[in-house]
Amino acid sequence: MFSAARAFSGFSIDDLEAAKKFYGETLGLEVTENAMGFLELHLASGATILAYVKPDHVPATFTILNFPVDDVESAVDDLNGRGVVTKIYGEGSGTDEKGISRGRGPDIAWFMDPAGNVISVLKGD
Predict the structure, then answer these.
(1) How far apart are CA 93 and CA 34, in angstroms?
(2) Global pTM?
(3) 78: in domain
C-alpha cells in the first residue's frame, strides 16, 4: 500500500567527493555515504536527502534545496566567509551586490553546489 511516511527527495551530482566536502565541511551538514555509494544529507529536521552521481549530470534549472534562516544577510555573510559565492545572477536579476533579492517575497539569496545545482537561503518564520 502506498504511504508517504518515509518519503525523501534526491538530486544528481557529478562528483561524489566534491559534494561530500561541500555539504559536509562547507555547509556543515551531517553527510554519510550509504551502501550503494550515494550520499545522504541528514538535516536537523530529521529529513534525509539523497545525492547521487549521474554520469551525464546536468545541473537543475531550479532551486533544489532551501535553507530557511532568521537573517538572510547574516547567512550570506557567513556563507561568503566560507568561500560560497552568493552573487550568481547578473545585472537585472533583482539581486543586490551580495546576491540577495529583497521585497519580492521573502528575502532570498541563491548559491550553487559544486555540481552547479542551485540552493537558497531565505527568510524563514
Answers:
(1) 39
(2) 0.92
(3) yes
In a domain, 2, yes or no: no
Spatial contact of 18 and 60, defined as CB atoms under 8 Å apart: no
Whether 99 contacts 76, CB under 8 Å: yes
Closest Cα partner for 67 from 35, 37, 99, 106? 106
Q: Alpha-carbon Rg of the chain, whole angstroms? A: 15
Q: Would you list the DSSP string of 57-103?
A: ----SSEEEEEEES-HHHHHHHHHHTT-----S-TTSSB-TTSEE-S
User: Among 40, 46, 42, 39, which Cα is nearest to 16's?
Assistant: 39
pLDDT band at 93 (very low <50, low <70, confident <90, very high): confident
Give the closest residue to 30 by CA, choosing from 39, 106, 57.
39
Set of cell numbers at residue 64: 533544489
Q: Is 4 part of a structural domain of the chain?
A: no
Q: What is the pLDDT of residue 97?
A: 93
Contacts 24+ apart (CB under 8 A), 92-99: 98/73
Total domains, the chain: 1
